[in-house]
Amino acid sequence: MAEAEVSSEEKSVVVRPVNYIQVAVETDGVTQKENIFKDLLKVENANEYRMMLKKCTHIHIGPKIEIHSDETKTRSLKKEEDERNEMFNSCCQILKTKYMTYFSYMRSFLWEGERNDFPLKDYFVELTVQKADLFGKNSGDKISLNEVFSIQQDGHQTILVTGDPGYGKSTLCKKVLYDWATTNYLKHFDLTFIVILRELGNKCVKDVILDNMHEHATTDSDLHLQYKRLNILVILDGFDEIVEKYKIIKFIREESFYISRRMTIVVTSRPQAAEDIREDMKMRFSIEGFSPEYQEKYIKLMFREDKRKATELSSVLKEIDFYRKMAECPLMLHMLCCLYHNGKMTEVETITDLYIRIFILVTERYVRKTNQQNKFKRGKYFVGENLLMKLGEVHFITSERLRNCFPNEEEYNFIIGLDILTLDSFSECDNIIRYKFVHRTFGEFLSALSMYVSFQSTNLCMFSPANSIIGMKFLFLLGFYQEEPLSERLLTYVEKEMFKP
In the prediction, which pLDDT does 125 show? Predict the structure, then answer.
């Protein structure tokens, strides 16, 4: 009766017999898989089993502990930023120290005595800079050094500064770097670099700048992260003095963008040598010669401790037109100041006397600098006179002709080391460099000296059209004779070649 009262909610259950053999097989399979995973966890057996995982996004074997903290991430980022800032500050301070040390003085060309250099901050006279058009002609607008670099731009800026030899382009570059290290009007530039192009050698401009940066960066990634955002000033001094001009053009058009997105590039050059990059320059300026006002200002600075000498030399420039014209070139005015300081101007009676005094100081300066006393023969007027006369006989001065005229290495270095020659042009077709004198009157003086010695010689001397006596050369030649009667050979030459009936 009890069995009949079973609830209707109960369900029937089918009971099947157990297959003990199948249970044993499945249990053994699980045990084998467990052993395989245990072996996988052992490092020495980790590569003994091949596995293929498909469509897996996360795989984890063994214990795993993850701790997520925004504070830790922030500290890590701050540390990286501090390291980059330290790298930048180190680079910046090293550059400023260098500019304040090595670029704080103007080198004296002829000055004798204890004071061979002049503090830039005390003796620099701001050059007259004028805006120029695409072809280098002055537009008439004069502008100060502060104004040239005061324009801040987000992208690339290119500035061309042209000027004749001896007009102060390199001194201007020194002044800009010194001002960046010591004043505020250039503070919008985070870093400044200068590349003396005649010293570039086999390197490219980009490598020189990056080498300076790499010295203070721990990795390349640090360098790019830090410097890509900076506003950098790069000065390329002496475009006219480099043979491989394509390197500079490539840097301006391409490589500079690799270094920084914000960069101002300043290129200095003689006017005639800047044709290849003129169109790449967004701003163009030309350095003009010293006006009488600036001449007087420069003389007062040079003789600030002796006002009497300053007044006397200023009077000489006002009285003698040749001196005043000569003093338009800052380098030549500096020479006049040196001669006057050394008391040599009192001995000057002619223009020839003046240049004899200049070359005495130029040659003696080289001998002192290279410690080669008694190495070169002294002539009637100065050391190395025979070598300089030979230079005066060369009409078109090229690298090939210099090597032919001066095969002796010491003599060749003497001519180059006097700093009276500057690179004029380069011919790519025949790989020849052409030089010119840093001031045209130097060549005329040496040519006249060579003629004077030749006219005094008993040997027959024939003159080529290149050595024709015209202009300043004739005045120099007459100055060599002083109180001597003019030679018969000179009078014959003058009558035949210069003043025909």
Answer: 73
Structure tokens at 202: 């086999």
Residue-wise DSSP of 276-327: TTGGG-SEEEEEPPPPHHHHHHHHHHHTTT-HHHHHHHHHHHHH-HHHHHHT
Measured CA to CA, the distance from residue 405 to residue 64 in angstroms comes to 83
430 to 109, 272, 433: CA distances (angstroms)? 34, 20, 9
374 in the Ramachandran plot: left (φ > 0), alpha (ψ -120 to 50) or beta? Answer: left
Residues in the chain: 501
Mean pLDDT of the chain: 78
Q: Say yes or no to pLDDT of 462 above 50.
A: no
Please say whether the dihedral angle defined by the alpha carbons of residues 305, 308, 309 and 313, taken in this order, is positive or negative.
Answer: positive
286's tokens:
């030309």
- What pLDDT digit, counting tens, does each position of 330-346 carry? 889 988 988 888 777 77
Q: What is the pLDDT of residues 22-70, one digit of tens each?
A: 656 666 665 666 666 556 555 444 455 555 556 666 666 666 666 555 6
| 149 band by pLDDT with thresholds 50, 70 and 90 | confident
**What's the confidence (pLDDT) of residue 414?**
95
pTM confidence score: 0.71
Cα–Cα distance measured from residue 50 to residue 52, given in angstroms and rounded to the nearest whole number: 7
Q: If residue 195 lies in a helix (H) or strand (E), which one and from where to where?
A: strand 191-196
d(CA 134, CA 199): 28
Cβ neighbours around 301 below 10 Å, total = 15
DSSP string, 37-91: HHHHTSGGGTTSS-----S-S----S-------HHHHHHHHHHHHHHHHHHHHHH
SS (H, E, C) 238-288: CHHHCCCHHHHHHHHHHHHHHHCCEEEEEEEECHHHHCCCHHHCCEEEEEC
491 versus 297: which is more confidently predicted?
A: 297
**What letters, b where the CB count within 10 A reaches 16 and e where it falls short, cover 184-196?**
eebeebbbbbbbe
